[in-house]
């Protein structure tokens, strides 16, 4: 997982390579056996919980002792680097949905996905979406781009100074790549972008960050690069800062900005029989709901056309030790539905800012580690898989909520499961 | 807290009444005593945790047994309405910051605010912001508007049918208010808005929802109203749905949309001495950082000019049983800084979508209840207070991060506290 | 056309009244006679031009002497109020398209619409769109809202001062209505909106402006109101300005802002035979093009989903003496297409910012007056009609360009007609 | 001006080369002589007009016979490619402002800029802005990027097909460059960008277009490329179109989209004495107005922070035969103001979409040609200059309007000059 030699010339646009196509074409999902279904009995008793925990232990062969409450966290030393002024552990109810069948460029197979939430109906709805998908085949998922930015910003006396500074900077790209390599074992500098507005210069340093979500790593590398620049460039800025608020960190920003973390797309064609048997609606009604939705998204000035990917993102991020403050940016999505020539329902979602990590951050805390292990996403080499599970989960949620709304079941479901 | 008679004619714009002005003018913050400071010793040992838990128990006289791990959740019955497919509890490290001194229209006094996160530096940074604020006085906070929407959408054969339908609907506003009263003890229908685009009609039903965050309550009322309309109106839509994706639920949408939950504004003038002693920067540098930030926000197409209110919102929402999937919408903010005639630093933040509840949702779970009680925000009559604490917390974070960036401490802090 | 008594309580949302429905239901378009068709012979000769001028003189009984070059402008006195540093007249090639058949709340009948442009293909394309529409019936057009804003902005020492100021302002609404009446014979003050962000207060004064486009009129009234406020309110702002850049003047702004000038919607159902015979495509292909377009609009961050309404707006505005600098705001549109149960094509466009006038501004200059008279839109009582003709024109253009693109004719047409 | 060998590897970001810096550093503006000032006497008489026409003929040595009305257009043959259904010439009052002193990468020297408008006050205001700028030095203008896009869009059965298609496309970039060279003497293909969303593929073909504005040229080249792809690629799309509505043609789109036409930045530092003597305000007041404006722009969801660049763009485009329908996109701007250490006023504007041409389109019509010649911008090799004059003009307008508003003169000016 350590970084290869740096080459500042990677794909700056979406890309699908031929080995990905082959991998996806050669996958065939098997039917789900009865033994692979999550036991749903006794939803609100200790016994029901135990049934599901046993299912996990036996079916998935992973530990859930901390989630189950059998072990209690007391390793306060491990808090270093993750929190200050610690008083204890907030506890969020957590369940699993699935199996979710994914045929992805990184995630391939069946997954039981943990979600932490206090919103009733949520897991029921995602479970239903996952069922509709797996009864129609597998969700195809392809990662299109990867990149994380810091955007330090420099201000000059005037455009002349700025112009000289930019020229110097662009001649030192390779030095910045070297500084990056020396500062981090994982970060790779892939792009150095220039954005000029009057006497303000924004330099976009774009990295990949191995299997960490990467915000700290890229900050540290960028800081070193900036300090090198300021110390060595003959032209002096009148002010500079490590971040000029254009990186999109912790907030939704323009769709045209391209990528933050990973840009991924996912699709499935739902069989019309399944739309009726599982989702209790028709392709036509679901399609009508989507058309209303996309038109609504335009009217209210939302970024993208997603309905509620934030529910999946927040619940998955809490369970799996991800940065929950990234919910806004990570849930940016374009959701799309069409009826194909067979009368089946083509459903797709594309998300440009799926920012996750499987090392560092909150991934090593007890329940977080257990949740990551549930989906085989703990540790090095797994972040691409986690990101693809995240988008597949979002797609099931988009399908299920629109199905419910199209058929008038939405309110009834919330009256049944919610409070 | 039960609903008063419904009047569909409330303020549709921001408003500050004179009693609020009086309340705020008459408040005088007292100096913080040594005994009121959070013990920060032994940050990463069981002993340090215990010191802080004792401080809470003695200073704040509230229970923290579940947070401390002294009691274990086993009341699975209580999960009904909050989660399905339950397997256990995800545990998120939680700390407190403060005291945060607030002079608000709903929250007035000093507060120790719980935050659940795995991002190192976060609580240290918010603590520093809170300190800079309290050494400069109190954060003024005023709630400007309140309202929660459902936006059912109807499609017609053509504009003629739509026009007849709209006329009928507008003649039945009082009936809708009555249906609302009969459907909920808390919801009040305050506005019925019409948005027409070709043969698509969006009706915005806007409510207040007592002390619940209100998404379910308003869905149920709106569903009943819509069913009444469809059953009684002589003109039939060709399709309708409870939500046409314009309410802004679970996503950031246009700032001009006005309010979702509560629109609140907060301000403080930081003394220049405090900027230097606590924030280790100067008013001039901090102001320069903000100018860069606002200009960056415009350039990257973000909604508003906030830097990272999502950090405060996510950490507070996890700790306090709020809907974390609302992080995107709730963290929408306009952050602003100026230097006043004395050379002090005027700092303000305005947030239109602070959506919180102190009853229902996840508020009654053990650690959530304990966290809410820490800030005296558990139960009826407290949601306005919780919302104002949330924005004050966001303001301290905006100040602290910009201070760090302006003085080049940001990266160093993350290297010290983060991983 | 003079102003009625002022009532600050008009519809703040879209509205269709029953008399509008009746008017539109009772209209029946007659077939277009051969004699009503524009002579298209000799497109690029003096003779062809003469044929078309004669058609106008005989069919429409209006003067076109200045357009024809038979009379030359020399009334320099009349330039006062419209331009400084005058050197002469820029001349823009102008043609007519039509007949355009409209069944609107203000415009009803057939119209030959003047367009001034140097872009080849444009009039040919709009002509084709108009033909497809009239062979399918009439374009239904309904005006939904009217209003023009100035948004003076006030800054205060702090929120306390701002709050006292707002209270005072809201108590003096009726005085502002009186000042408006005294300052203008046409302006009516319909709404006073409050928007607070920290110590900044934006007051939105919303007017109707009779048949003038109204920017000057509303500026003058608002200035008088502001001066009254500042002279009389006991609380003093530290700074104030007549416009804080939120009115949307001369630029596209968020769709959720509601209305600027007039918000109008238009629809037509194109018969599938006509789609094939006139537009040389199929409903299915045209619908596919639109789906791609709306998805493209979302991806590139455009405001609304229009394709090129700006072409119609700019060409009509130049010809008719409107404010061409408003092209950006006025061409904001939501374009929508669907296939109905008969396989016909439902097409709609909704435009919130159609800002036009038929008195004042550039309407009285010689060719501008002639162009306005061509569509019976010169002088008092005609602005509502002009606005509805504008949107109907835009709709024909949206249809025609998408038809061309869907069938691969777009480039060929530009190669034939363009340079 | 013919195209050099095509290299698909140009700067994809802003750039300032060292020869530009040298050119700008070596320029020194001379004081404006009395004889260089536009005669302003007799504003609304034939005599005054004649004085100004003589000034142009003698000072600038260019023809203005058509503008003056001394010659009448009758070359109907020349209309081919520019308009259909021609009936005559719309006439727009036109004046000149200046001298405008520019120190640019393409435009260097003093310019008298023609503007066609019927909005009183406009030329007076731009004149004042130009005066304030020239009394403070020259406006520095630097072109940062150039590019024009067509964004054909392809839809596939599924992601697998799309992936194979993309691979094929990316292997044929050089072929596309060859097709471009064969299809146009001027177009150069500089970039081929890929954007994937589910089964929809948008390919961005980005060109430079010599001195034409280039919309037609790039359409024709892209059409040929697409037809080549569809004829030769083994994978077939289910639908494709020459434009998927993401190129930003005729509408304002996200600032992050980078460039359309030319991205240019301009700056000037206004001396504080000049702010007072010419603009009748103070640096402090003007700066306060700007802060209010930028904050207002954010609040109303406008793209960028410009106040009214559309006024300059529309008036210049009408006079100079540009595509007026591009007013929305071309006037997108970031306007910024700051007070520097001397108390002088730094003013900058950055505009990413200045789309102009000096050959083709409407540039050869009589008055258009005269207006272009007024600023030495007619014919090959001049489009870069015209674009820089456009932005400099916009900057003077931003300064003047904000000055007026900051000092409360705005309304009075409109009462004096407007109607």
Explain the overall architecture.
4 copies of one chain form a homotetramer. With 419 residues, chain A is an alpha+beta fold. Chain A has 2 domains: 31-76 and 90-145 and 260-417, Alpha-Beta Complex (3-hydroxy-3-methylglutaryl-coenzyme A Reductase, Chain A, domain 2); 147-241, 2-Layer Sandwich (Alpha-Beta Plaits), CATH 3.30.70.420. Helices cover 38% and strands 22% of the residues of chain A. In chain A, strands 1, 2, 3, 4, 5, 6, 7, 8, 9 and 10 form a 10-stranded mixed beta sheet that branches. Chain A starts with 17 loop residues before the first helix and ends with a helix. Strand 1 of chain A pairs antiparallel with strand 1 of chain B.
Short note summarizing the structure:
Chain A is an alpha+beta fold and 419 residues long. Chain A has 14 helices and ten strands.
CATH architecture of the largest domain in chain A: Alpha-Beta Complex
Global morphology of chain A: globular
Average pLDDT for all residues of chain A? 95
Tally of domains of chain A: 2
Helix/strand/pairing class of chain A, anyone? Answer: alpha+beta
- How many beta-strand segments of chain A? 10
Strand content of chain A: 15-25%
What is the H/E string of chain A? HHHEEHEEHHEEHEEHHHHEEHHH
Distance between the termini of chain A: 46 Å
Largest interface: A-B, 134 and 134 residues
What's the CATH class label of the largest domain in chain A?
Answer: Alpha Beta
Enzyme class (chains A, B, C, D): oxidoreductase
Protein name (chains A, B, C, D): hydroxymethylglutaryl-CoA reductase (NADPH)
GO molecular function, one term (chains A, B, C, D): hydroxymethylglutaryl-CoA reductase (NADPH) activity
Organism (chains A, B, C, D): Flavobacterium pectinovorum
């Amino acid at each position: 997982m350590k970084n290869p030699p740096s080459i500042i010339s990677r794909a700056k646009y979406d890309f699908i390579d031929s080995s990905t196509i082959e991998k996806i074409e050669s996958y065939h999902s098997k039917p789900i056996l009865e033994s692979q279904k999550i036991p749903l009995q006794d939803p609100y008793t200790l016994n029901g919980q135990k049934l599901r925990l046993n299912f996990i232990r036996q079916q998935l062969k992973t530990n859930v002792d901390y989630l189950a409450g059998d072990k209690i966290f007391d390793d306060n030393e491990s808090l270093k680097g993750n929190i200050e002024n610690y008083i204890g552990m907030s506890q969020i109810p957590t369940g699993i949905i699935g199996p979710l069948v994914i045929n992805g460029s990184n995630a391939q197979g069946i997954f039981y996905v943990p979600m932490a939430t206090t919103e009733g109906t949520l897991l029921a709805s995602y479970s239903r979406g996952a069922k509709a998908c797996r009864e129609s085949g597998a969700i195809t998922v392809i990662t299109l781009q990867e990149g994380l930015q810091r955007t330090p910003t420099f201000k000059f006396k005037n455009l002349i100074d700025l112009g000289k500074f930019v020229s110097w900077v662009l001649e030192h790209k390779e030095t910045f790549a070297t500084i990056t390599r020396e500062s981090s074992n994982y970060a790779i500098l892939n792009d150095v972008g220039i954005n000029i507005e009057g006497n303000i210069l924004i330099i976009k340093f774009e990295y990949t960050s191995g299997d960490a979500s990467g915000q700290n790593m890229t900050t540290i590398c960028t800081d070193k690069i900036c300090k090198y620049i300021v110390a060595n460039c003959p032209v002096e800025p009148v002010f500079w800062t490590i971040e000029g608020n254009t990186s999109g960190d912790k907030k939704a920003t323009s769709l045209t900005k391209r990528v933050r973390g990973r840009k991924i797309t996912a699709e499935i064609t739902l069989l019309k029989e399944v739309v009726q048997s599982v989702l209790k609606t028709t392709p036509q009604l679901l399609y009508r709901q989507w058309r209303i939705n996309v038109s609504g998204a335009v009217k209210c000035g939302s970024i993208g056309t997603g309905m509620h990917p934030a529910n999946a993102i927040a619940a998955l991020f809490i369970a799996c030790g991800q940065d929950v403050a990234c919910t806004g940016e990570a849930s940016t999505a374009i959701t799309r539905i069409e009826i194909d020539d067979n009368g089946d329902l083509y459903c797709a979602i594309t998300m440009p800012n799926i920012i996750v990590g499987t090392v560092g951050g909150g991934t090593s805390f007890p329940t977080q580690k257990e949740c990551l292990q549930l989906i085989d996403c703990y540790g090095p080499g797994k972040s691409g898989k986690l990101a693809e599970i995240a988008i597949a989960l979002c797609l099931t949620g988009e399908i299920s909520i629109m199905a419910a709304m199209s058929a008038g079941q939405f309110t009834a479901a919330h009256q049944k499961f919610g409070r």
